[in-house]
Design a protein that fits this description.
six-stranded antiparallel sheet
């Protein structure tokens, strides 16, 4: 009888997918429609969460303004940083995917002036493909835009 229970337990454990998350928070998903935004129709999903990086996917029907869409993307990084419990975040890599969406690798840390290669790996550089230095944003800064305020 014990072997039947053990076999059943092993079968259940074997069929449950393992999560590669660094904490108990669920993967993040934000949708512009949730905020009543009718100027753009965008959605970002956190596809994967590694130790210090996350892979995010942007899909859209309508981008809206360049500033508005950039702010929406930054908000997604902010939400992921909050879910991870980290203060600082940066965009390490981005590219178009085969489905017409946009993929991002975000870096997340609690070090204010982290060295990109040391913190996230040798495949990432201090500058982007245009030679611009990668900057870190902070959850504290973004709280001024998206954090809850008590009135």
């Amino acid at each position: 009888m014990k072997s039947i229970y053990l076999a059943a337990l092993l079968a259940i454990v074997a069929t449950c997918p393992a999560q590669a998350t660094t904490n108990s928070a669920s993967l993040v998903e934000i949708n512009s429609a949730d905020d009543g935004d009718t100027n753009c129709m965008m959605r970002i999903i956190e596809l994967e969460r590694g130790t210090k990086t996350s892979k995010l996917k942007l899909t859209y029907e309508k981008m809206g303004s360049s500033v508005g869409s950039s702010m929406f993307i930054m908000r997604a990084f902010y939400e992921v940083a909050k879910a991870r419990g980290t203060e600082y975040f940066t965009n390490l890599k981005e590219w178009d995917d085969a489905d017409g969406g946009r993929l991002y690798i975000g870096g997340f840390t609690n070090k204010k002036d982290a060295n990109i290669r040391d913190e996230f790996g040798p495949e990432f550089t201090q500058t982007n493909k245009y030679g611009q230095v990668r900057l870190f944003m902070s959850v504290s800064q973004c709280n001024m835009l998206w954090g809850k305020t008590d009135k």
